[in-house]
Design goal:
Belongs to the MqnA/MqnD family. MqnA subfamily. The structure is a single chain. By secondary structure, the protein is of the alpha+beta class. The chain has a single domain, classed as Periplasmic binding protein-like II (D-Maltodextrin-Binding Protein, domain 2, 3-Layer(aba) Sandwich), CATH 3.40.190.10. Helices cover 46% and strands 18% of the residues. The chain contains 11 helices and 9 strands. The strands form 2 sheets. Strands 2-1-3-8-4-9 form a 6-stranded mixed beta sheet. Strands 6-5-7 form a 3-stranded antiparallel beta sheet. The mean pLDDT is 89.
Length: 231
């Protein structure tokens, strides 16, 4: 079993969960070697170097259409803090996230797309700073829906991954103090900022989230935003 994981703070609760979840030793070994940013995992998924993972929503379209998805995802609840567009900066996309770039185009924004720890550091930096838009906030303002940034998709071992996903979002996760301190040092944020960020991230896909994905895919087709492909 080959599982790929996004090495971002939004999956810190999953990191804690998976350490205690019963999996084959080969799964844990692969997990430690297949940590990367979203666009790289998309590529690995397309070429079947991994058979499951939290895949960018845009790249996960075919899995969604084939129903090879779990009811688990990375969801921005009204705001996300880690996916921003800096409006006064030179226009530019972020090479690490296809979905964030597509959402920026769907929402008709122009500016510099910023994701992950870089976006969180910018969000928490003291004034003055450039005008910016939180993409999950703007999506919610326009649709009344949360935005799904990544979906737990699979290409094999569907029963195993579906059971894992359900166990993850049903189990309350407490992050140990020492791990928070480690991630704070790595990210350049403090413990309070990390916990505040995680309060805005949901993981269970309910009807609202599913409908939000449907709306996003429809807008991607209408605006002819290119989706990541194998070739």
């Amino acid at each position: 079993m080959r599982f790929g994981k996004i090495d971002y703070l939004n999956l810190l609760p999953f990191d804690i969960f998976i350490k205690g979840y019963p999996t084959p030793s080969s799964f844990k070994q692969c997990l430690n070697h297949r940590k990367s940013y979203p666009a790289k995992l998309n590529h690995d998924f397309f070429f079947r170097r991994i058979d499951a993972g939290f895949i960018s929503s845009l790249a996960g379209y075919d899995s969604w259409r084939k129903k090879q998805v779990t009811s688990c995802a990375i969801i921005g609840n009204k705001k996300v803090l880690s996916v921003l567009v800096l409006l006064q900066e030179k226009e530019g996309l972020d090479a690490q996230s296809a979905t964030s770039n597509a959402l920026c185009q769907v929402l008709g924004l122009k500016g510099q797309v910023l994701i992950g720890d870089k976006a969180l550091r910018f969000y928490h930096q003291p004034q003055p700073k450039s005008d910016f838009v939180d993409l999950a906030t703007l999506w919610h303002q326009k649709t009344g829906l949360p935005f799904v940034f990544g979906r737990f998709c699979y290409q094999a071992h569907g029963k195993f991954y579906t059971k894992m996903a359900k166990a993850f979002y049903q189990r309350p996760i407490k992050i140990p103090h020492y791990i928070l301190e480690q991630r704070a040092k790595q990210s350049g944020l403090n413990r309070g900022q990390i916990l505040y960020y995680l309060k805005h991230i949901l993981y269970r896909v309910r009807p609202k989230e599913e409908f939000s994905l449907h709306c996003f895919y429809r807008q991607v087709r209408l605006k002819r935003v290119p989706r990541p492909r194998r070739f």
